[in-house]
Predict the structure.
Amino acid sequence: MQILILGAAGMVGRKLTERLIGDGRVNGQPITRMILHDVVEPQTPQAPFEIAALTSDFSLAGEADKLVANRPDLIFHLAAIVSGEAEADLDKGYRINLDGTRYLFDAIRHIGDGYCPRLVFTSSIAVFGAPFPEAIGDDFFLTPLTSYGTQKAIGELLLSDYTRRGFFDGVGIRLPTICVRPGKPNKAASGFFSGIIREPLSGQEAVLPVPEDVRHAHASPRSAVGFLMHAATIDKARIGPRRNLTMPSVSVTVAEQIDALRHIAGDKVAARIRREPDPNIMQMVAGWPRRFDASRAESLGFKAEKSFDEIIRLHIDDELGGKIAN
Amino acid sequence: MQILILGAAGMVGRKLTERLIGDGRVNGQPITRMILHDVVEPQTPQAPFEIAALTSDFSLAGEADKLVANRPDLIFHLAAIVSGEAEADLDKGYRINLDGTRYLFDAIRHIGDGYCPRLVFTSSIAVFGAPFPEAIGDDFFLTPLTSYGTQKAIGELLLSDYTRRGFFDGVGIRLPTICVRPGKPNKAASGFFSGIIREPLSGQEAVLPVPEDVRHAHASPRSAVGFLMHAATIDKARIGPRRNLTMPSVSVTVAEQIDALRHIAGDKVAARIRREPDPNIMQMVAGWPRRFDASRAESLGFKAEKSFDEIIRLHIDDELGGKIAN
């Protein structure tokens, strides 16, 4: 089995790569080759099979065709300009998130000849925009309030149409905010949800730009990789024609996040959060979802954490070697 | 006030043009100039103001810029490849319905300098796909089952995002099936809904390709023009951020359509319908909506007919000079 990952240099891409190397197989089939693609060169870890790293801008005509020329059996499309940047640079966001996605989908289509890979696309809960019900169900409409959310919603529509036409076998998964995100902050406007946990646990100050009553939906990086693997392997007959799924998540307020941090790491760590309201971020976040009823994904076997405590403990185990900076 | 109509040579475009010439003003402002655009040359009727007819393919780079260069105050974007053709020719459908729409929206954006016209976009109930509830409400999700519906749904998303960013003041209206459509059949898969009324009333045989229990949602051409005019003039503060609206319609089965025809025109006319099931059309229609709860549009003052009898009588009055072919 050949696997292609677009956006392989990103946090989720790297963790997915590790997981695939560790597993060595997908759905019982041994992995024979992996292609890691990104706009910056992805690291190529050691593996018992061939790993090729490719660097290019897949939103340029012809680049996507090169990526699929060897007919990968499984494609993870994780590449995207994140929300904050897509809002700040309209042309870049549409070019990568819409045109790039379309070039990829068309590159697969143009191979023809019965080629029909499983394609897993990471969409986002940013496809939803306020006002919405207290819990957003599986048939609630998409009213994105950011250009990023708009571009992801368009990607979902294209994925459905191309799957319906038989060009590939697509599964779109709407990731909740991934928390706790390891490493440095990225340009996502949602970055503070991780920052207020990650920085204090490492002995650093974090900025909280929104009020503590802001409620939001989270899943750990480990869950994100789990969602991707499940989307890669689930029987397509079980999914049916509606190929885009809201993933399960833990819904908590910022106050509950901070309570969990205090509970696990103590007052001194929790005191490293500095309140500094940012009207721009507050306005964006006000339009974001707070809670989901992800019944369809749950019935299909997608699993997230059950509490924010669990999310913090996973971060301490997976990223900090079990140690908290006191 | 300057007005631009894209898709002006189509049936709705021609009727809208007539209505605008008859009214002479929009929202109390006198019309000073109209630009009628289509891929085939639109007719230029007599009018007490300047009318320019332009012919081009607006999905070619640069063409849309020419259309908006004179900063029309009001733009009607009616241009589209219809459902049957967009399904048969994937590239053409995406090129016109997606790329063309995007070129138009970007052309408006690139003018900048405070230019922010009202833009009325005709979307379609094809943005919805089965299974759905008995009546589709205003917050039901978009799951198109055709490429045409996919392209219209993408147009809606782009319209919302560009409106939110202040590039134009967009209103998307989801037209139900327009019935009775005058003139020759077009390539829309929904064409038979009009054909089974129009042809018998003109003394000709019509083909019915689906069973009589098929239920669907209709509005007259006169209502379609009414929707467009209302969308052009409604106060934007009343619409709010959700700029795409399902229009009101009359929900009837094909059997009820035929009953209304028989009731108005007699058995002999109704006998001109020949049953000839077409599996392709049956499959497409099976995924189409049957009934809407268009509460939002109704509360905003959009109005359709109340019965299918009324729809037939309007056709006889507006298109047949009050006469039925016995």
